[in-house]
Amino acid sequence: MALQINPSILSADFSRLAEEAKAVEGADWLHVDVMDNHFVPNLTLGVPVVEALGKATDTPLDCHLMIEDPDRWAPQYVEAGAGSVTFHAEAAAAPVRLAREIRAKGARASMALKPATPIDPYEDLLPELDMVLVMTVEPGFGGQAFLDIMLPKIRRTRELISKHGLELWLQVDGGVSASTIERCAEAGADVFVAGSAVYGAEDPAKAVRELRDLALQAIPGRRRAEDGPATAR
Asked: Which residues does the Swiss-Prot or TrEMBL record annotate as the active site (predicted)?
């Protein structure tokens, strides 16, 4: 199972996004948080910025849509250049249809769960997905403290993935840092979104490498992702 580090552009300097994207080009993906001030109480960026970021970096874009009506908007992010699009289970009206549409357009389809949303009701949907995102903070703002009570949920999600023999990626997002990433890896996560832990560091690229090393140390046998993630299933 490959291990990946995805810096979150939410914690970057928005006045110089192109430079900030290039500062972490050793990362596996660039995580882009899209918020609409309805599904979550914050407003960030949208399709035009995603399209511009895609032209500014060779790092593939991992778009996390914290928005209402993802069934309508998610396909547009694929068209804008996202290699992975994550919609929230709590917001999608037809998650299977949406996942299939995202995949048909050429991107990886991912489903996110807020901290209070259990994974078990969505067990039958897992074969339709390429990744599951377990939020380890309440979505909406960066810089929050990691919720340790999410570790059993990460373990349960990994159990269900293994139960069905799926090659699903398991992503965690929220409070991931040098002090928490090992616990996430031990619980079964293999894709780690880190915002302030990367962009708050003096050397963001070095911070990515250090986080990767910590996660690798926690789980012997894991390796760095080497294949082009946007095409891998």
From this structure: 33, 173
Amino acid in the structure at residue 207? A
Check 33, 36, 62, 190 and give the catalytic one: 33
Distance CA(126)–CA(164), nearest Å, equals 9
* CA dihedral over 162, 163, 168, 169, signed as positive or negative: negative
Q: For 71-85, what is the mean pLDDT?
A: 98
Q: How far does CA 83 lie from the centroid of its chain?
A: 11
CB burial of residue 124 (10 Å; 0-12, 13-18, 19+): exposed
Neighbours of 181 (CB within 10 A): 27
Q: How far, in Å, CA of 84 to CA of 63, rounded?
A: 6
Burial class (CB in 10 A: 0-12, 13-18, 19+), 228: exposed
- Of 36, 62, 130, 173, which one is the catalytic site residue? 173
pLDDT digit string, tens, across residues 178-223: 999 999 999 999 999 999 999 999 999 999 999 999 999 998 665 5
Note if 13 is an active site residue: no
Could you tell me which residues are annotated as the binding site for substrate? 8, 64, 140-143, 173-175, 195-196
Judge contact between 6 and 229, C-beta under 8 A: no
Quick check: is 33 catalytic? yes
Helix, coil or strand: residue 114: coil
Task: Decide: 191 and 170 in contact? Cβ < 8 Å.
Answer: yes
